[in-house]
Amino acid sequence: MKLVVVSAGLSVPSSTRLLADRLAEAVRVAVVGKEPDEPVETEIIELRDHAKDIANTFVTGFPPPKLEEVLEHVTRADGLIAVTPIFSASYSGLFKSFFDVLDQDALTGKPVLIAATGGSPRHSLALEHALRPLFAYLRAVVVPTGVYAASEDWGGEGAADGPLASRMSRAAGELASLTCGTGSRPGPPRDAFEEVVPFAEQLAALRGEE
Fold first, then answer.
1. Residues facing 5 on adjacent strands
2. 60 vs 53, 56, 68, 177, CA distance in Å?
3. Are 28 and 65 a contacting pair, CB within 8 Å?
4. What is the per-residue DSSP string for 41-69?
5. C-alpha closest to that of 76 among 168, 1, 167
6. C-alpha R_g of the chain
7. What's the gap between Cα 15 and its chain centre?
8. Cis peptide before 65 (omega within 30 of 0)
9. How confident is the model at residue 204 (pLDDT cuts 50, 70, 90)?
10. How far is residue 102's CA from residue 63's CA, in Å, rounded to a whole number?
11. Integer angstrom CA distances of residue 137 from 96, 128, 134, 189
């Protein structure tokens, strides 16, 4: 199983990357629990490292080689975890820009776990009114449980086995069920040009009809 994790955290270290790492590990544990012989290959993509390339792609229309490779990894993944900080009650601009330059068919049928971080629990609904509609538009299969982590979720007693840990475990189990289920993994997008008939053959066919 190829699991790709997209993190839109801006600082180093960041709570967004921390949540991304925790979710990736939770999914790995859930997959092993369902399919003990299933190896899980995890790749973490830090969008902050590709911010300039993402911006340039908007201008030129063509992603640079490094960004193109990242986009390909997301497209080929069996499952995706997408984590963003919440700014002004929505996903970050960097997060949205990345999925804007991704091919519109890349996530079709792909299992996706959505997650976000923020300073206040008041922003938790951003998962439902911002992230879920975005991935529904991209025709991804979004797991029922979204994971939001406020600053207060990381400290104090019960952080390791409290509500946040419970949400992560439940969401990870849902993603594992989709990626390990029979026939659930999406195949690579079909190349629209694979079946194009060369012009010379089309012309020969027309002449033959005449």
1. 44, 81
2. 10, 6, 13, 39
3. no
4. EEEEEEGGGGHHHHHHHHHHSS--HHHHH
5. 1
6. 20
7. 17
8. no
9. confident
10. 10
11. 13, 13, 5, 16
For the whole prediction, is pTM greater than 0.85? no
For 126, the token pair is: 């951003």
**CA angle, 72 then 76 then 80, to 5°:** 100
Tokens representing 13 are 């270290």
pLDDT at 195: 61
CB 135 within 8 A of CB 105: no
Domains and CATH numbers, the chain: 2-209 (3.40.50.360)
The b/e string for 81-98 (b: 16+ C-beta within 10 A; e otherwise) is: bbbbbbbeebbbebbebb
Contacts of 130 (CB under 8 A, 6+ apart): 89, 90, 91
pLDDT at residue 158 in the model = 45
> Do the beta carbons of residue 57 and residue 101 sit within 8 Å?
yes
Q: Which pairing describes strands 41-46 and 2-7: parallel, antiparallel, or unpaired? A: parallel
Amino acid at the residue 167: R
Beta bridge partners of 85: 117
